[in-house]
Amino acid sequence: MAKAIVIGAGFAGVEASVQLARAGVEVHLYEMKPHRFSPAHKNENFAELVCSNSFKALRVDSAAGLMKEEMTRMGSICVPIAKECSVPAGGSLSVNREDFARMVTEKVESFENIFIHREEVTEIPKVGKDADAVVIAAGPLVSDALSKKIEELCGDSLHFFDAAAPIVAGDSIDMEYAFAASRYDHGDDDYINCPMNKEEYEAFYEALVNAEGAPQHDFDKRKTGYEGCMPIEVMANRGIGTMRFGPMKPVGLRDPKTGHRPWACLQLRRETKDGDMFNLVGFQTNLKFGEQKRVFSMIPALHDAEFLRYGVMHRNTFINSPKLLSADYQFRTVPGLFFAGQITGVEGYMESAQSGLMAGLNAARFIKGEEPLVLPKTTIMGALASYISDESVENFQPMGANFGVLPAIEPKIRDKKERYAALSARSLQYFEREE
Ligand SMILES: Cc1cc2nc3c(=O)[nH]c(=O)nc-3n(C[C@H](O)[C@H](O)[C@H](O)COP(=O)(O)OP(=O)(O)OC[C@H]3O[C@@H](n4cnc5c(N)ncnc54)[C@H](O)[C@@H]3O)c2cc1C
After folding, report:
1. Which of these, 167, 239, 356, 392, is most buried using a 10 Å CB contact count?
2. pLDDT recorded at residue 227
3. Rounded to the nearest whole angstrom, what is the distance from the C-alpha of residue 332 to the centroid of ligand 1?
4. Residue 404's CB: how many other CB atoms inside 10 A?
5. Secondary structure (DSSP) of 408-428
6. CATH class label, 3-161+316-434
7. Residue whose CA is at the smallest distance from ligand 1 atom 20
8. In which residue ranges of the chain is CATH 2.40.30.260 found?
């Protein structure tokens, strides 16, 4: 039986393994947990969500939702499992992270031809000698030893930094100062909203920009551009109003106590269905733990909040894919060696999962001597594969699912809603043809 090695059982690694296993390949999946944990990983199960528990929107006329629909059509395991263990979160697909990781692990373990090795890989296995194909899916927090080997192989690799948000206990939120609602009433009062008036917000802002650990200027200077995970204190440093246009924006919310839109509002999203844990949406931070407690407790609803996990900041690594990879995620100069996940420069949990799916599928095709399958650029999955392998891209930066990566529809559709619906329909046509 042909043999493949997959390194890393994160979002990309599990999808790659399943694709290979379904193609009849003997898969050896290496995962360093629980012997070694990256600074952000804590759970010994596979496909661990290290920060937000949201997989973003589900609607197929949104880019994130369309990508998930494409993944479903391509046989993803992450999307259906996420739906099975979802928690209420308005229009977004958010999960109980413990259940999700456990169910994904059980699914992978259920394949007879996937052999799991709980050990760290420190050398890049040789295609043709150690296995018929190799998929490196060791993530943005790849262990140091393997990271060195990848750097030797790639000539250079790029690093940037991002951060995770704190989680508080549900029963420690003072609902006297909070209200349940989804923005614009989308969803079922799924978020807990922590409103602030102008004075409270300004005092909070002052405390935040002066808190210890707050001047995280390096993050800004590095120009690595992962705005989605920018620490809240870095955002605050850009100006007093910035948070009110970002995660603390009050639009679409009305405080039932005052009958008005609050001046600023922090949203809390469920981590679990029963609402015993909530994360502070958009409040990724690098502040010292004591400072997080002091400053975030200035938000009236959080005055007595119990912090179950503090925010942290981490290295994040990706390779210069446009110079190194083809659109099938294969390393150009080493046939049979594939990269997948965030390390390729796709950005996000599900983006990583979809790249793993395609890398695994193409590794199986490589083993069988078949042509690679590259999805058309009119699909989100195909457009991301094209982006990470586009040699003309200068100053390569990670990219998540968005409609901007798809070719425009001619003649142009001015109405945004109609345009998104048309882009979505065009993508799905491809899968309907193939089914
Ligand atoms: C701190 C942080 C916060 C993030 N927050 C978000 C967010 O909120 N939302 C979002 O969509 N994305 C977020 N991301 C980005 C990205 O979506 C995740 O990192 C995602 O987990 C990437 O999937 P992956 O499969 O590439 O890597 P991972 O899911 O990290 O999986 C890689 C696996 O490889 C294992 N491994 C590493 N080195 C070795 C080795 N040498 N041998 C064996 N096993 C190894 C690791 O233990 C891990 O299990 C965040 C990233 C970081 C670092």
Report:
1. 356
2. 58
3. 24
4. 9
5. PPSSPP-SHHHHHHHHHHHHH
6. alpha beta
7. 349
8. 166-310
CB of 349 closer than 6 angstroms to any ligand 1 atom: yes
Q: Which fold has domain 166-310?
A: Elongation Factor Tu (Ef-tu); domain 3 (2.40.30)
Q: What are phi and psi of 74, to 5 degrees?
A: -90, 0
- Residue 342 CA: nearest ligand 1 atom is 26
pLDDT value of residue 274: 67
Distance CA 71, CA 67 (A): 6
Which residues in the chain are classed under CATH 3.50.50.60? 3-161+316-434
Closest protein CA for atom 29 of ligand 1:
10
- pLDDT score for 180: 94
Rounded Cα distance between 31 and 118, Å, is 5
Using CA atoms, how far apart are residues 42 and 279, in angstroms rounded to an integer? 16
298 φ, ψ to 5°? -75, -15
**What is d(CA 295, CA 359) in angstroms, rounded to the nearest whole number?**
44
Residue 136's pLDDT is 98
> Tens digits of per-residue pLDDT, 61-88?
999 999 999 999 999 999 999 999 999 8
Minimal-distance CA residue to ligand 1 atom 18: 349
Rounded distance, CA 289 to CA 309, Å?
Answer: 9
Q: Which residues of the chain have pLDDT under 70?
A: 156-162, 214-228, 272-274, 394-395, 434-435
